[in-house]
Design brief:
Shape: elongated
Distance between the termini: 63 Å
Structural class: alpha+beta
Number of helices: 9
Largest sheet: 6 strands, antiparallel
Strand content: 15-25%
Number of strands: 8
Radius of gyration: 23 Å
Helix content: 40-55%
Order of helices and strands: HHHHHEEEHEEHEEEHH
């Protein structure tokens, strides 16, 4: 009886070990002849790092430092940068993917400020989750828009206060009929974030790159 019980315990240890550490084959495939194999291995390591953030930075740094071939070193730098920047800045700001205008819509007996969808960006979360040109968004996560301020500005503030991967509930009217859409936010494109921050005279992508470069120099023991 006791020998039977020991088998699943051993299996559990093996499964836990494999889940906690990326297979050596993934690192080996980063240097494969076929581009598709190299790319697939990098994606697998990216996913592993997202699930094992505490271990990923040290492991990726050691692999980066040991890499000799230029492309392998570049890929390890990308993997390392992604994790270091994530630990500093977190997930990217949320993004829906619509162009919009401001309007009003009567809900029951009350007139509400709404966001009018004038265009849907192809392959954006708005496109994937079925928003359409002409939709009138009057509530997001149960919050209506203050009629004293443009609804579009309030919508942007709410969405960018959230992060990539968060889910928002949009209540809207389409051709006069009420509809609810649950939408998973994407990552705000760097170009759009630059535009949103132009009045601050800073580029968030340059900030992130400078932060990583300084981090890497310190980690390598090089004076910057």
């Amino acid at each position: 009886m006791s020998s039977i019980l020991r088998v699943p315990l051993i299996s559990l240890v093996l499964i836990t070990t494999l889940a906690a550490e990326p297979a050596a084959e993934q690192f080996k495939q980063l240097d494969a002849d076929a581009y598709s194999d190299r790319h697939a291995a990098q994606l697998e390591l990216t996913q592993w790092a997202a699930d094992n953030s505490n271990e990923a930075v040290d492991l990726f740094f050691d692999k980066y430092k040991a890499a000799k071939k230029p492309e392998l070193k570049m890929r390890m730098r990308q993997l390392l940068r992604e994790r270091v920047v994530f630990e500093k800045y977190g997930s990217p700001k949320g993004f829906v993917g619509i162009r919009m205008d401001n309007g009003s819509e009567k809900v029951g007996d009350e007139l509400h400020a709404v966001v009018l969808v004038t265009n849907v960006v192809k392959d954006s979360p708005a496109d994937v989750f079925g928003l359409q040109q002409g939709d009138a968004l009057w509530r997001i996560d149960g919050r209506t828009f203050n009629r004293k301020t443009f609804a579009s500005i309030q919508f942007i503030q709410i969405v960018t206060s959230k992060r990539e991967g968060d889910t928002v509930v949009l209540e809207l009217f389409r051709n006069g009929k009420p509809l609810e859409v649950k939408l998973v936010l994407g990552a705000m494109p760097a170009k759009l974030e630059r535009q949103n921050n132009r009045h601050l005279k800073k580029d968030p992508e340059i900030d992130k790159e400078n932060y990583f470069n300084n981090w890497l120099r310190k980690r390598l023991g090089v004076e910057g």
